[in-house]
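To: structure desk
From: M.T.
Subject: fold request, one chain
Message: Could you run this one when you get a chance? Sequence is below, nothing fancy, just the single chain.
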Amino acid sequence: MRIESTFLMVVVILQLSIAIVILYLIFRRFPRSAKTSGEKTALPQRETVDKKKYAHSGISEALAGDLKNKVLQLMEEEKVYLDSDLKLKDLADRLGLSVPNTSQLINQNLHKDFNTFINEYRIEAAIDLLESNASLTLQNVAYETGFNNNVTFYKAFKKYKGTSPSEYLKEVILNPAG
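Reply: Done. Structure tokens follow.
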């Protein structure tokens, strides 16, 4: 009888210990002050997050404005996006910046990531090409505008225009009134 009661006592103490540890972990992970204060904690705004993230980057707002203009000039005048091997490092080298600073410049000042930024220019070029020469195959258009393959071209086109390149070609270019 004595062994049974000792065993039960050990089991109860073990269960209480486990319960205390679990409660400690829960309250540590979810502090009571946020729950009891009635305040809703808002997620930080992207701009605030970006400013904190890039606080020590070395690119001032004035310099960022100049560099943004230089990026846009590279895109619009030199059409660097037509290079199917274009990488963030290549653009960074052209700007005389590090890769992280170039990424920051695009993220903060153009409000998109590198691939989205480049692909938007490529899709606009593809649309211009299709409008000027509807007899080109979509594969030729993809390669002419800097895409390495059809899948990437189709995905980017659908993301940017909301329709596939072939549907766009049928609806907008070949049958504009339809």
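Reply (cont.): The first helix runs from residue 2 to 29. Let me know if you need anything else for the meeting.
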